[in-house]
Amino acid sequence: MSDAEKVHKAMADYYDTLDDWSFTGLWTMDYSKLVMDEEFRAANKYLHPTHQKEDAGACNMSPGLMEGLKLVDIGCAQGRDAFICSKMVGEKGHVIGIDISGNRIQQSNDFKKYHKDSMGYKKSNCEFYEGSVTDLKPFGLKDQSQDMVVSSGVVCLVPDKEEAYREAYRVLKYGGEFHQHDCTTSQRLIKSVENEPKLWAEGMSTLCYWDNIAMLKRIGFTTPRHVYTTPYVWSCPDPIKKDKFGTTDVRFLAVQMRMFKLPPGAVQKAQRATYNGGIPYNQRQFQFDSQTLFKKGIPMAVDGELAAILEHSRFAPYFTLSPLQKGDIIQTDTATYDVFANAPH
Ligand SMILES: C[S@@+](CC[C@H](N)C(=O)[O-])C[C@H]1O[C@@H](n2cnc3c(N)ncnc32)[C@H](O)[C@@H]1O
């Protein structure tokens, strides 16, 4: 068995038997910081009470405009986000959930009928499969077949992170979105973190934020745009932190990001973008990411990459692009936004 296979196996065992989501020990999430946007709240009402209570993933901001999409939730566990997406994509949309834990997939399947009925669908629009996010081919997931990939708190658990990201990229259609929520750190960690199974299983063996962005861009995604952040709160004393991570200074955040797969050769030219309204739950304004708020009818100068996203993604019908005018100040992309600026040590 390769080292990566050993971690996959350990992860499947860990999540097969974990019976609640209260990770104990080194850290906790700052749940007081969690918010749920209106669209998410509306979908959440259809979930089984046990799923409504889950907030370990803590990804409660909807990507928006999902009606009719085909998507994959990589690392779906017992299906909380997949069922939220099931409501958001509607009966004509489709959701595939993949998880390495057989027990979690069994639970997801057990909840399919409840959610089909609560959402009033004739037939469930969800399928769940046991497998690794690093290889989606066994589930018939062809190149460029999906409108969206979502993932919450999973890639931080995967040793071969680049393979996981490449699979997400492969299955996305051009113009499709990868909406990811994952643990990330303010600096590189010492190698020994990777030798501790418990640290792996709790998502601490993760990538430094800027390394993660570089990897995603190398694969071909647009610059990951920051949507939302939840800080970790440390419950272990400094000497333990130093021993585990090599420093007491490192900060961990759960970061929600959105990135897109643009068509080859898509022109990236800064333009004015005007939101025309019409996106459900976002009629007067549309918060594209934490730094970019479009107000209906008000032109905003956007960088070339965002202009290309608006032109080629599902958002295209809701925006008018026009040439820049003298004096326009272009929104900077969010890769330079320091998500760690206010994060607790
Ligand atoms: C922290 S939980 C998050 C679950 C869910 N996305 C949420 O937000 O509630 C991590 C999940 O990732 C799964 N996982 C870990 N490594 C995986 C891999 N290589 N492939 C598929 N799933 C994996 C685990 O089994 C577990 O269910």
Description:
The chain is built from 11 helices and 13 strands. The protein has about 350 residues and is α/β, with parallel strands linked by helices. The chain folds into 2 domains: about 5-260, 3-Layer(aba) Sandwich (Rossmann fold), CATH 3.40.50.150; about 270-330, 3-Layer(aba) Sandwich (Ribosomal Protein L9, domain 1). The protein has an 8-stranded mixed beta sheet with strand order 1-7-8-6-5-2-3-4. α4 (about 80-90) links the parallel β2 and β3. α2 (about 40-45) packs across α4 (about 80-90). The longest helix is centred in the N-terminal third of the chain and has 15 residues, at about 5-15. The chain is globular and about 55 Å long. The structure holds S-adenosylmethionine.
Features:
single chain, 13 strands, Rossmann fold, alpha/beta, binds S-adenosylmethionine, Ribosomal Protein L9, domain 1, 3-stranded antiparallel sheet, 345 residues
Write a compact overview of the structure shown.
About 30% of the residues lie in helices and about 25% in strands.
Give the tally of β-strands. Answer: 13
Largest sheet, spatial ordering of strands: 1-7-8-6-5-2-3-4
CATH class of the largest domain: Alpha Beta
- pLDDT average, as an integer? 90
Q: Termini distance? A: 37 Å
User: Order of helices and strands, N to C?
Assistant: HEHHEHEHHEEHEHHEHEEEEEHE
* CATH topology (fold) name of the largest domain: Rossmann fold
Report the radius of gyration as a whole number of Å.
20 Å
User: How much of the residues is beta strand, in percent?
Assistant: 15-25%
Characterize the largest beta sheet: strand count, sense, and whether it forms a barrel: 8 strands, mixed
Number of helices: 11
Hetero groups: S-adenosylmethionine
